[in-house]
Amino acid sequence: MNEKERILQLREMLHGYNRDYYVLNRPVISDMEFDGLMRELQELEARHPDMDDPNSPTRRVGSDLSQDFRHVLHKYPMLSLSNTYSEAEVADWYESVKKGLGGEEFEVCCEMKYDGLSISLTYKDGRLVSAVTRGDGVQGDDVTENVKTIRSIPLIIKNEERQEMKNEELRMKNEGLPGSKTDTAAANSSFFILHSSFPNSRSSFPKEFEIRGEILMPWNVFEQLNAEREAAEEPLFANPRNAASGTLKSISSAVVAKRRLDAYLYYMPGDNVPCDGHYENLMTARQWGFKISSGMKKVKTLQEIYDFINYWDTERKNLPVATDGIVLKVNSMRQQRALGYTAKSPRWAIAYKFKAERACTRLDEVTFQVGRTGAVTPVANMEPVQLAGTTVRRATLNNEDFIRSMDLHIGDYVYVEKGGEIIPKIVGVDIDKRPLMAQAVTFAHRCPECGTPLVRYEGEAAYYCPNDTGCPPQIKGRIEHFISRKAMDIDSLGPETVDGFYRQGLIKNFADLYKIDVQQINGDGSRQKSAQKIVDGIEKSKSVPFERVVFALGIRFVGETSAKLLARRFKNMDALMSATEEELMEVDGIGGVMAKSIVGYFADAVNKDIVERLCSYGLQMSLSEEQLSSVSDRLAGKSIVISGVFSRHSRDEYKLLIEQNGGRNVGSISKKTSFILAGENMGPSKLQKAEKLGIPLVDEDGFLKMISDEG
Ligand code: IVH
């Protein structure tokens, strides 16, 4: 066999092994063998570029090539489902279907409502050619390259039924993700259906077809990802849906590949589907290699629908992915067509949403937490209780008004719910269980950390500790902000070290960081190496550019972008410190609230002293020569959209050039857009919109001329 033949053979083998592992959950070779074959294929493909195949299994690993998602029109709009929350509403729907069909008999397909991100896949000649998100339902983002990394989505499908597919029972038992909770609920349930005698299982797939489903991040992957983000001090994802969505929109498909997303398919739109039954179509799609839920059931009566709902309301907790309800669909496609659609959703389907999970437990104590900005948050400390897979001990109480509206008392039995957020919420109180003489919860009057009387500003719900330069969590919070990646990027320090230094009295503010030496950290002499690393990291930060120093100060309301604007406009710290509110507000993007906050910050003697010390330690207190020479205001007042692919500079470089020349980068085209910096292959919808609004396009060369002296 020559190398080219081996490439074809390896591709075939790897597609099959992928399916065994990710769709059938029944690996037939070891991970090591699999990786070995994949590497062999990668090497051979590198030697034979003429054998390139966009659907090769090697595409599963993704690439770091950044991508601009093209907008694609959906062939059939992606509608949503109308939601119901009670059995009575389900009965109303059932009756309306019966009436709509003039009394004709009908079957209903009951299935899980997966809580992820909907996706529409198009296959041509058995090959995945596009994957598009729902978007606004009419057009979505083309995320094909990212979707190719999802191993349970077949890149190539085959007509012949594979031998292994016949043993349905084994497969269904193994449904669920390897290493995660398995789908035993489905396997043990009376709703678990064996399809081995399915009549259309050999139906061949159409030359071109679409199949839709949900992309999900399994619970175990989600938990691991958040644990990693917590360790890296990155913001956590609120739920697996947000995590899946953030991942799928990642511009690097290599990142997507690492995140181990999964996909269940649940609908085939169009006229060229294999059968008249929706359920039968999905079973056929399963034969082609798609992952189809095993928790599906065809029923006829309302009672059977209720039974299905009740069963899965509890059993869903054993599934490896998030679900938030049940979807009911009239099974016959002919009947679906007869029932048709309203403007927003099909009449032939509805969703029944599960009630959020709720637990009842005792409120033991309310404590108050002071954040970096001085905002004080009340926290309920409760008797630990199990809720939606985790133990809950604490819940946020938002603010004083919330506590009052709940009329909370210590010792109350409270209902806790986990909504879309990680932190559970108290949603009600069982007044009947209130102990005699229970004390009403009152808001703290003094800061629990420094004892300063709290203030509540007009129009705000939160209380603040006004002692911003003397209150420990505010000081520590500001130091943590100062060292963070987007500010001074001192990665040799973390929150725990900062906390330790603060407690030892080594630092009282972030300027103190620059005077600590190895000896001070290395008190007993056992930490020479790590102490040196910390000091080196601090030293290195002295070259961090001026705009990041401005951001690092932690002036209230001044984010990364505003800091850049300020740095470019005032060019050095002295000028910024003496700027008046009016001068600050002249900067495009700086409003009244921010201007006031900046002036207030520099008026405080403690802050002024800190900044002067930073200057004396040698931090960058002005724009660099290079920055100064490249700064112009040639694009002042212009809002610019970048679109397409460029050859002379990267997108990020163009973004920087726009900023350096006083322009603003904006994400989407509107009436206010000044022009579009257009590269090759600009998306058709952007082009259309630009044309419609009469926004000029400027190409790379034109743009570079514009910001050069010639311009
Ligand atoms: S069918 C025309 N089936 O729910 C109806 N949707 O509000 C096409 N979803 O955007 C959708 N599980 O993302 C269907 N088994 C299921 C589903 C499901 C989850 C999502 C889907 C859709 C939303 C509808």
Number of helices, counting only DSSP H or I runs of 4 residues or more: 27
The total number of structural domains is 5
Find the CATH topology of the largest domain: D-amino Acid Aminotransferase, Chain A, domain 1
CATH structural architecture of the largest domain: 2-Layer Sandwich
Gap from first CA to last CA? 61 Å
Report the β-strand fraction as a percent range. 15-25%
What are the segments in which pLDDT stays under 50 over at least 5 consecutive residues? 161-201
Report the strand count.
21
Mean pLDDT: 86
What's the overall geometry? globular
Hetero ligands = 2-(butylsulfanyl)adenosine
Fraction in helix = 25-40%
Calculate Rg over CA atoms: 30 Å
Main sheet specs: 6 strands, antiparallel
CATH superfamily of the largest domain: DNA ligase/mRNA capping enzyme
Structural class comes to alpha+beta
CATH class of the largest domain: Alpha Beta
Q: What assembly state would you assign to the polypeptide chains in this entry?
A: single chain
Can you summarize this structure?
The chain is of the alpha+beta class and 711 residues long. It is 36% helix and 17% strand. Strands 12, 13, 14, 15, 16 and 17 form a six-stranded antiparallel beta sheet that branches. Strands 2-11-10-3-9 form a five-stranded mixed beta sheet. The chain has a four-stranded antiparallel beta sheet with strand order 5-4-7-8.
